[in-house]
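pls design
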């Protein structure tokens, strides 16, 4: 009986291996590129604020945390909006990244302004429309 189970397991792994579904082989493959890679190129300019330049003082961390929490709690926003970059430096906030619609962009900006104050928010958000689904 043990022989049949072993042979069966080997057969399954062999089939998966031939089908390209071998989990060990999948670990060696590189993940697909993030779809906002081109946007991230812009952030490499020395003059552009980036998340690693955000100040680690308590007030800036609290501002970033409050904005992020408010965005995550808003379930009407897309994953793109939930993941925008929030960079706080000396109480000034910069928002970066793609969102799905102009309405979503305005919601993210308003949320940040409600937390940090309107004059303290710079928006570099871009609208990226959802891809149309292919029909056969």
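designed seq:
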């Amino acid at each position: 009986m043990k022989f049949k189970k072993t042979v069966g397991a080997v057969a399954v792994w062999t089939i998966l291996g031939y089908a390209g579904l071998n989990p060990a082989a999948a670990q060696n493959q590189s993940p697909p590129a993030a779809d906002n890679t081109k946007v991230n190129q812009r952030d490499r300019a020395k003059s552009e604020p980036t998340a690693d330049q955000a100040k680690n003082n308590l007030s800036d961390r609290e501002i970033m945390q409050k904005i992020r929490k408010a965005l995550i709690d808003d379930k009407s926003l897309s994953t793109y909006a939930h993941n925008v970059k929030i960079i706080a430096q000396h109480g000034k906030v910069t928002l970066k990244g793609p969102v799905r619609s102009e309405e979503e962009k305005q919601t993210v900006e308003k949320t940040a302004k409600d937390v940090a104050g309107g004059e303290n928010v710079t928006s570099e958000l871009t609208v990226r429309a959802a891809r149309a689904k292919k029909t056969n």
